[in-house]
From TrEMBL:
Organism: Pseudoduganella flava
Coiled coil: none
Protein name: Glycoside hydrolase family 28 protein
Keyword set, alphabetical order: Glycosidase, Hydrolase, Signal
SUPFAM superfamilies reported for this sequence: Pectin lyase-like (SSF51126)
Family: Belongs to the glycosyl hydrolase 28 family.
Amino acid sequence: MRRKTMKQWLLALGAMLLSVAAQAADFSVARYGAKADGKTLNTKAIQAAIDAAARQGGTVVFPAGTYLTGSIFVKSGVTLRVDKGVTLLGSQDIKDYPVLPTRIAGIEMKWPAALVNVYRQSNAKIEGEGTIDGDGKVFWDSYWTLRKQYEPRGLRWASDYDAQRPRLIQVFESKDVKLGGGLLLKRAGFWTVHICYSEDVTIDGVVIRNNQDGLGPSTDGIDIDSSRKVLVAHADIDVNDDALCMKAGRDSDGLRVARSTEDVVVRDSIVRSGAAGFTFGSETSGGFRNIEAYNITVLDKVPVGILFKSAHTRGGFGENIRLHDFTMQGTPVVLRITMNWNPSYSYARIPDDVKDVPPHWKVLATPVPRERGMAQLSDVSIWNIKASGARTAFEVDSYKEKPAQRFTLRNLDIEAKQGGHIYDVAGWTFTDAKLALGTPVQLEDDRGVRGLPPAAVQVRPRAVKEDPSKKSFEEQDKS
């Protein structure tokens, strides 16, 4: 009897200790002075809770309410849990985002931290069914003000770098990071989720809404930047620029760093609004390798379904890329490859009247030899593409010196008013291509393309296209 009583006592004690440990693993921001009134700046209180959780490994939790905050930094071993009913609201004061070394839009420079950061850490999580709201309109407005000043001076390319705006979530030089669980991410001041120089990152279950309070410029959805072993799943995206985007550095600085984006899977996601459904570039310098995207739905507010974009100063490569099981509903262009994207943004030239040149301008304006600056696309497989209500099937413009080569396209079901054109390619093979086109696909010659139905092809001299640099800046952003 005594043994049984002792055993029961030990079991009860063990259960109690486990319960205490579980409770100790949760660190409520309220214990550190945070107030959920949407007005009190809670940066220090939230960070204190994160730092306490980091000392023994734990979860930071929030009582229901709205927490105004500047940049916070999730540490190794910590879970930041933003439950339903909780909103982290970004400060509109740029001073609340400390300036740190990072990479932004393809070059390494100092830049304001994101609202939520995993910065040089490991084994960290950001999860829950709550909201992270960047409240970014003040930063959008400051960007447009600066850009309107820069545009007439030929400084379109500098405006994105000089109008410093905080990203919503940054994962930088980190590994084993998880993000998702139903989070609503909204109104980012700049990019929404930026994964840079990181590995073993999972983003599963995020809803991104940046088109509230207007159309936020450059409010990309999820950018995977010179990182590896990344999974993105169950993303629901409504943004005003790249939605699901692979990046790898810009021009001379990206070529210097030379870090590829590789071993990435993106699946089971929907793009409701954005510059394209799935994008490579325009930051291509480090290259892309072993990228797969599938079960992607792209809706009619998205101008392009699959987009490869670069410039003749970017360099880099794309190889072993697999894109399949895309559904495009009213998406105007099914596949676009442009290697001279948005010249007024892509090519930096410092005006002669600028005397005090910022260091990052010098980096952006560093010349890149043309041979090194042309990106090479090769070994790309695209299959099971269903596109209805499109304007144009193909807009493909590569380089004669480095044609886009060894593309295999099969089981295409495309309905479009125009076939479009495929220029400067080699070794393109179409199989089981069902194309309902109002006009045929234009080719300069048919030596690089095999398998298109004869009725769907017309061989003729290349049409002269309008120079995108002559468009207004509103039009360029939509191109």
